Amino acid sequence: MQKPLDTARLTRLADRFGTPLWCYDAAVIRERIAALRSFDHIRFAQKACSNTHLLRLMREEGVVVDAVSPGEIARALAAGYSSRGGRDEIVFTADLATEETLDVVVREEIPMNAGSIDMLRQLGERAPGHRVWLRINPGFGHGHSNKTNTGGEHSKHGIWHTDLPAALAVIAQYDLHLVGLHMHIGSGVDYGHLQQVCGAMVQLVKDSGQDIEAISAGGGLSIPYRENDAQIDTAHYFGLWDAARKEVEAHLGHTVKLEIEPGRYLVAESGLLLSRVRASKDAGRNHFVLVDAGFSDLMRPSMYGSYHAISILPADGSESGARPLRDTVVAGPLCESGDVFTQGDGGVVQPRSLPAAEVGDLLVLHDTGAYGASMSSNYNSRPLIAEVMIDGDQERLIRRRQTIEELLALEAGL
Ligand code: LLP
């Protein structure tokens, strides 16, 4: 969301569409895309936010897309993407694929970014000649939490680097077409690890003895969740990868495309979660403010201890700055003690100094455009909430609120 917040507009949106509500600002997404234009392809990791309207925006901006399930492939197709005829607009990245998934991948000619040798073999048996990438686990990783570190020997992701020759043998056996090599070592990667991963990529290309068209830097670009966090320097990021690409080009003797595959960076800061304060209470030393959004909507604080900045929009239209500060625990409606938005790494309640909130106020959870709506669930039989896209003066409902009848429909008449 563009800062400072347009509080009158958010109040109008909450009144019109109800709360809790996801809001995205298209302008922020376009800005982030623009900052990555030096890369040959920006491939959006749609797991961060897979609303088809948002994917359409990506497509209009020339961004291609990654998919990790048949559902995500269907979303990409619905948004107008195609991989037919070598267009490669959709790439399927996974460590395993069901028979049904392989059917779709083959039918739609979607290159497979294979994270296991078994997956390559199963594809090869079915579709010799199919385009493939190899996702390599270089033996090290990094992440904002252990759960988002995707490299190293504890990670199930990718083909272990010393297994590259075995993967290449399967590619040769089935005459698969190797497009490129890919690495994604985790989310929230720092520059030190980046240099290491660039070096590993160059070495792998050399060791492979293969001719390839492209390399992929994966995703993992961090965003400033806290006020003092720095915005990533995308020129520096590109510079490191471009140097690696040039080494690869010198080695192969021709040009090589450089892809990047961010999720969070493109959408996190565009989004916020708008909730309404419905109750407050004290429990010993803790002051609780209870809002109508829960971890069934935004899971990140409960899952990773993630920090999201919080703003209060007073119901009477006054400035929140005029309210006294109060140490506050912000919690949701779910029947579970971990349903708390202000918590630390250990999953403990962590009060935050916030303007005193009152019943009826709006409470904003910032930077929730990535891994917000896409990680929501129906826990406690709560319907999925609505999503709205703001684009300049326009405000568009891009997903309506699920109904309780829709929840029950899956079990009806059986
Ligand atoms: N490429 C691959 C192969 C990935 O597995 C991922 C994320 C990305 C790209 C995009 O990573 P990003 O640029 O968004 O960091 N739910 C967690 C993040 C899990 C990421 C899983 N893979 C969170 O809320 O932080």
UniProtKB/TrEMBL annotation:
Keywords from the UniProt entry: Amino-acid biosynthesis, Decarboxylase, Lyase, Lysine biosynthesis, Pyridoxal phosphate
Annotated protein name in UniProt: Diaminopimelate decarboxylase
Cross-referenced SUPFAM superfamilies: Alanine racemase C-terminal domain-like, PLP-binding barrel
Primary gene name: lysA
Function noted in UniProt: Specifically catalyzes the decarboxylation of meso-diaminopimelate (meso-DAP) to L-lysine.
Signal sequence, start to end: none
InterPro entries: Ala_racemase/Decarboxylase_C, DAP_deCOOHase_LysA, De-COase2_CS, De-COase2_N, De-COase2_pyr-phos_BS, Orn/DAP/Arg_de-COase, PLP-binding_barrel
Residue ranges annotated for the Orn/DAP/Arg decarboxylase 2 N-terminal domain, each copy included: 33-268
Pathway participation: Amino-acid biosynthesis; L-lysine biosynthesis via DAP pathway; L-lysine from DL-2,6-diaminopimelate: step 1/1
Cofactor(s), names only, from the UniProt record: pyridoxal 5'-phosphate
